[in-house]
Amino acid sequence: MEERSEREERVRQRTSAACDACRTRKVKCVASTSESKCSVCTELNIECTSMRPRKKRGPKNRYVHSLRACLDGNSTFAAESEPQQPRLGLIAPPAIIHQITTDWFDWIHPVAPLFHRTLFMQRISEDDGSTAFFLLVVSVCAATVASLRRRRHLYGELSVEACLDLAERFRMWSVSSEITLERTLALYNFSSAVNHEHGLGSPLTYRLFAGSSVGIKYLIHEKFERMSFMDQQTLKRLYWLIYAGQCTCDMHGRQLLVLRHAHEAFGHLIPLEISDIQLLHGADASSAEDTSPCFSYVPGLNVLSRLFMVWHSSQAITTQSMDNLHEHIMRAQQLLEDVRPELAWRPPHAVGQFAFNVQKVNLKVTQLHIRSNLLEQMNTLAKDQNMRVTPGAIIDERHRVVDELLDVLYNMPEEVFDANGYSIVPKIRDIGGALLDELRTGSQGTTLQASINLDKLLAKLESLDQRVAVQTPYV
């Protein structure tokens, strides 16, 4: 018993001071104190040395300590995960931001009059560190870069994806974020940018459209009465821009969240047609009536809203009929007959102020798209009623729509269409698609003029659709 204890002691002592070979192989080093080699070295016929320094153990539970440090905010990882102070310099150099925001107000603001130009530019120059305003500027940059593709060479390296990354970095999408007017405006701008870049089929487009819709409804029902006059007017303008976007998506077969029902009261949500000066200082309805149209783009927005209400009303019927569709086509036509001169599309087409040309094209193409959409619904009804040949009245009206569209396309500079954003391209494509189907089926015979018109339409569409090919920039 005593001999066994001595042998175990010798083994233990030798194991705790293992030779270099056994330590490298991580095997037990067995040798008696009387032998110069351990059993492993003897078997391998190598020298049995103990010259290499042993590695020191690290502190116990080092992993646990590092995690605790992260949670306490004491580690480098914790410091890096915290967002930086929101500074506009994180978006782009000041000159680039100035270029983008100037382009926003010169090109996009006429069809989306959401901001007071002087106040917005003043806040940019102050750069007060507000996260909400920082994200709003990021969204404006994203929407501008997405819309004005031929001017991207002026915007440095800034891209829509970079803007989305910044928004995520500053927790734009956090469920704990408060619903405010600035955040809802930013969501709308981001939804427009993503739609321009990736189309309606993108899940992010759906999510952002939904977020802006939820925000606008919440603000109207819960915070409207406590808002300033300027914020109330901005909210109303945003409401109708979101409504226009949703109707457009619906016409393309992509129904989003319902913002309003066709026969829902809307008078209290119509924005006043006032200038920026009145927006800043407040204006009642009587003073708004005297406002010069040259200083406000809201009249054009209100006409656009009424156009989409005509289309929405045409769909609010249990059983669709030819008479209902024809009536709403006539209403859409009449609506643009009664607008202010600077918004009307009438020959001769003298090129006027750029901003009003942008509005004029937006209104006319939207009206033509609505008429074309209702005509194709009439065509579908005719087929359902076993009419083998499309009624001549539908064919004639379709050709009138195409003629009027070509008149617009070939009498306005290309940048006017770019200022309207990519959303104008699918509208033109829908109108051309109806004519193409007519020529393919040949139900009314293929006419030379219809073929020529289709070729002219496709040529212009190829030039406008900047998502297909890189276009020559303009300054």
UniProtKB/TrEMBL annotation:
The keyword Nucleus applies. The keyword Nucleus applies. InterPro entries: Carb_Metab_Trans_Reg, Zn2-C6_fun-type_DNA-bd_sf, Zn2Cys6_DnaBD. Residues 18-50 form the Zn(2)-C6 fungal-type domain. It comes from the Eukaryota. One of its GO terms (molecular function) is DNA-binding transcription factor activity, RNA polymerase II-specific. SMART domains: GAL4. Pfam families: Zn_clus. Keywords: Nucleus. This is Zn(2)-C6 fungal-type domain-containing protein.
